[in-house]
Structure formats: C-alpha cells, structure tokens
Amino acid sequence: MRAFSLPDWAFYPLAGLLAAGLVALAMLVRPAGTEPVVQGGRFTVQGPALSNFIPGPGTRVSFMPDYPGGAVARAGSDASLEAAGALSAGVGLVVPPAFEAAVVGQPIRVTFEIQAMDDTLEEVRIGYFTVSTGDSGWRAVPVSERFETVSFDWQVPADAALNENEWVGIWPDPEGLGRDVLVRRVVIEILAGQGSSPGGAGPARRAAGAAPPRE
In sequence order, which residues have a C-beta less than 8 Å from that of residue 110 and are 6 or more positions away? Predict the structure, then answer.
C-alpha cells in the first residue's frame, strides 16, 4: 500500500505553523535561570543562562553548571536533520523581543563555542529563525573534540515580522546517531556598517588560526 504524503502546497505552510507553535510553546515553558545578556548590539548566552536552551522534536539538552572550566549545555539529537529538521528548530534559544526588533534589516553574526563529544562527529548545523520570513536555514559548521568558536554571517530581512518567536538553534548531530556536543557560549551580534543584500549571508567560519571548515 502506498504511503500517504502531503503535497508541497500543504506541507510547507503546516511546517511553518508547527515551527511557530514550538517557539511559542518554548516561551511558555522557558526554564528558570539567569537571563541572557543584551548589550551594545550583542545577545550573549553563557554561564547560568545556558539553562535557557530548549529542545525541539528529535533533540535533547541538559544544563551542566559544574562542568570543568565553566557551565555548558550538553545537546544531542536522536533524529536525523533530514527526518525531523523540517518540523523542528533543533535545540535553541528564544531571542529577546528587544533584540529581535534591533536586528530587523541588519547584518548579524551568529557564533557558537562548541565541542564534540565523539571523534566521529565532524560538523553540526546552526541557524537563526525568524519563523515568519527569511530564516537563515541550517548552516554547516565544523566541530572537533576541543572547544572551538564557529560562526556565520547573515542579513535579517527588512520585512521580518516582530512576533516574539525568533530563535537561534543548533542541530547537534545531523545524522541522528546520538553523538552529543557541549555548548559553552552563544553570541549574536549586529555587524554595523557591514550590510549585504537582503537574505544574503557570509560563509560559515572557524575562529582565526583554526583549521578551515570541511566541505
């Protein structure tokens, strides 16, 4: 018997509605903890604020306040990005409304400080989601068994709606093999004076001096 499959005209609107619903629900069940810092065009999450990470369908996350060297969030995915990614925003953070308003029409840089806990995991996906218009999509960034800083640049669309549902997320294991990562810091910064075409983006990158990203 043929498996039922929604046509594209029905699937994509439903996927968008579900993604918006997940972020809205995350706002309601947001864990208690120190709030992320928004200051000088930067949104920073580190230390106790990492407890605000929320898992979407197919993913999981736990806060580890006593990890050697400082607090981390341990994130994993037991579903592949291909299987669940269209209906999940991964493990993520809700962007504060004030910062959501500040980035409309602006170029931003999304940065994660992460470490793989399995030497077979070579890359993860990170992204910025407006839920309404012009998500960055999932960007591949390299990881290793030591903490490294990885990032990508993106232009937030000028017509992005202010819906208090914006989200920055990570898909820890694109293949869904249960290989976890540690996240020590997340930063979103406005790149004043470095605009690009709407919806444009720079390449994913490592910190200076690190090995180049894998193709």
Answer: 126, 127, 128, 136, 151, 152, 153, 154, 168, 186, 187, 188
